[in-house]
Amino acid sequence: MKPSDKAPSEKALVPFVSVDHMMQLIHHIGVEEMMSGIAGYIEDDFHRWELFDKTPRVASHSEVGVIELMPTSDGEMYGFKYVNGHPKNTKEGLQTVTAFGLLANVETGYPMLLSEMTMLTALRTAATSAMVAKHLAPKGADTMAMIGNGAQSEFQTLAMKAICGLKSVRLYDIDLAATEKCAANLAAQDIKVVICKTPEEAIEGAQILTTCTADKQNATILSDNMVGSGVHINAIGGDCPGKTELAAGILQRSDIFVEYPPQTRIEGEIQQLPEDYPVTELWQVITGTAAGRTSERQITLFDSVGFAIEDFSALRYVRDQLEATGLYHALDLLADPDDPRDLFGMLQRAAPGNA
Prior knowledge:
Layout: E1 13-17, H1 19-29, H2 31-47, E2 58-61, E3 66-73, E4 77-85, E5 99-105, E6 111-116, H3 118-136, E7 143-147, H4 153-164, E8 168-172, H5 176-186, E9 192-195, H6 199-202, E10 208-211, E11 218-222, E12 232-235, E13 244-246, H7 248-253, E14 255-258, H8 261-267, E15 280-281, H9 282-287, E16 300-303, H10 308-325, E17 329-332, H11 343-349
Helix pairs in contact: 2-3, 2-4, 2-10, 3-4, 3-10
């Protein structure tokens, strides 16, 4: 057998979770159960917030979208996600967001997991929203307005159902076809679905208001006079400079909660406000060092942009499921010469004709 025909050593192999394996894993565990599990890992990591390296994501912006890297480490594992956001893609039959991610061992630098994260990011984003709403939404909240019915809408709804006890969702999108798609997908999910003709109609009777639109621009999805007291706003559409969804007046009447202020002030709704405008970090609410909801009439606002620690948590969750499920490929990713100093010799021995 030629050296190039030899099976890779164990040191060369990295578990790789493909899109197909990720979908199998989700069905094996259950969509709602998996989002609940990811939410638990995220909450656990928010309790360890101070251990993590933290930096705003590294972004490369263009006129049509953004490509970003999102790195972090807890000192034992390092993780990053590659992710794009291109709103024009759907018109070309492509996803607005695609992603993949990696976990590595800090001690050796060797990768421990490579995974698709387009599907996983959808679950992670919804799991984060619901975990936050569990802490901030009004007591007994059971109705959500879902404004923007694209790829994230079903995940948001089911995460809120699983984690917060949501019973009803009121859907609105400027594109009726998107709303009908969302309603059809949720028809068998044991939740009441109401299709609405306007955003004003959608927020009637809703205690949780979720905005998730894709246009890369400053927009007013919710105007100031649309939002009354005693609600929780889950603003997840603003995620890059120049893209917002809420009127500034809403922000000024709300108690604002964020993941990581240096990133949110660049990308979130609060980019509309002065740089020193007061906000509360979510990890402080979760650890009990800062107040969350303090009154029935309070407006709480989660200015969500997504942060690397949440992706780290989701990858950590997936990695912990692999041994029991076997839902991964062993990917020949790392060179492993017999002598670590002789990489060139490994190459030479793999030349055609060497026996």
